[in-house]
Amino acid sequence: MRVLIVDDDTATVSFMRLAFEAAGDEVRTATTVDDALREAATMLPDVVLSDLTLARSVPDGADGFALLRALRSDTATEHVGVLAVSGADHPEVLRAAEERGFDGFVAKPVDIASLIERVHRLGVVVAGRADSGGVDRA
């Protein structure tokens, strides 16, 4: 499984990277939307884990929602599974993530074993999306 982790907190990135690599996944990381899009273009991930607020991206106003829009608008990455990861575990944030097309929401702090299992399940769904030629909107 190819996993792209996008978060501006380097400790979170390191923790998740080690855990997913230990589970046998190929992992790339990014701390900004621009870096994430570059990584996604070269890696073509199965699943992207994206923080919703990316402080390092503030000058250009890009956040996890902007990353999702960019991924979905590119035919090479439109099928990728994208999970929102955020410490803002509020009903309005959950609703916004769902309405804007994230495949799910994960509250920080994460239970890493559950997250790995969830990502691997989503990877199976993503494989079906890619095989069918696009995003499963059902």
UniProtKB/TrEMBL annotation:
Database matches in Gene3D superfamilies: 3.40.50.2300
Keyword tags: Phosphoprotein
InterPro entries: Bact_response_regulator, CheY-like_superfamily, Sig_transdc_resp-reg_receiver
SUPFAM superfamilies referenced in this protein's UniProt entry, alphabetically: CheY-like
GO biological process: phosphorelay signal transduction system
Residue intervals of the Response regulatory domain: 2-123
Superkingdom as given in the UniProt entry: Bacteria
Residue list for modification 4-aspartylphosphate: D51
Annotated PANTHER family: CHEY SUBFAMILY, STRESS RESPONSE REGULATOR PROTEIN 1
Protein name: Two-component system KDP operon response regulator KdpE
Species: Ilumatobacter fluminis
Lineage, uppermost ranks: Bacteria, Bacillati, Actinomycetota, Acidimicrobiia, Acidimicrobiales
